[in-house]
Amino acid sequence: MLLGFKRAKILSYHAKSRTAKVHIHGMTDGASEGLTATFAYPVGDSDKDTEREILAGEDVYVFFENGEESRPVIAFFSSHGENAVIDTRRIRQENIELLARSKITAKAKVIDVEGSETVNIHGAVQINLTSEAKVSISAPQISMNGM
């Protein structure tokens, strides 16, 4: 029976089954293919409703369901110590949705929103733009009411 966490490396990820092939240090050394592992998601992140981008080559910690060597579960990414980004939280995914039942608030000294093709802002009832100093619109063509 294996207790505690073991270091591992993700070899590949299968999005549809939410599984990954992993190399577990000291267990699968020399094996041509890793073990199939499942993921332990944080409470509030159901794998039926959200997906996290999982990349091959990431260093992780695994535990074993019921202590069985044949049932690894990926629990955490491991720390790399040096050369890590500081003061930035990045979320990378093909699509990202922020769903709030009442309100989303974003506060910062500067907020940039950029779309390589289009940025859509839709308000079912109203859109308010307010500034203490200036509102600028810059474009080669400005259309009001679809004209």
Q: Which CATH architecture would you pick?
A: Beta Barrel
What is the C-level CATH assignment? Mainly Beta
How many β strands by DSSP?
Answer: 5
Q: What proportion strand?
A: 15-25%
Fourth CATH level, the homologous superfamily? Nucleic acid-binding proteins
| SS summary, helix count | 0
Would you list the SSEs in sequence order as H and E?
A: EEEEE
Low-confidence stretches: none
Helix percent reads under 10%
The end-to-end span amounts to: 71 Å
Main β-sheet, spatial strand arrangement: 1-2-3-5-4
Helix-strand category: mainly beta
Number of domains: 1
Report the sheet with the most strands, covering strand number, pairing sense and barrel closure. Answer: 5 strands, mixed, barrel
From the alpha-carbon coordinates, what is the Rg to the nearest angstrom? Answer: 23 Å
The CATH topology is what?
A: OB fold (Dihydrolipoamide Acetyltransferase, E2P)
The best one-word shape is elongated
Q: What is the residue-mean pLDDT, rounded to a whole number?
A: 90
Protein name: Phage baseplate assembly protein V
Organism: Acinetobacter kyonggiensis
Please characterize this protein's 3D structure.
The mean pLDDT is 90. The chain has a single domain, classed as OB fold (Dihydrolipoamide Acetyltransferase, E2P) (Beta Barrel), CATH 2.40.50. Strands 1-2-3-5-4 form a five-stranded mixed beta barrel. 9% of the residues are buried. A hairpin with a 7-residue loop joins strand 4 and strand 5 (72-77). It has no helices and five strands. The protein is elongated. The chain has 147 residues and is mostly beta strands. This is Phage baseplate assembly protein V.
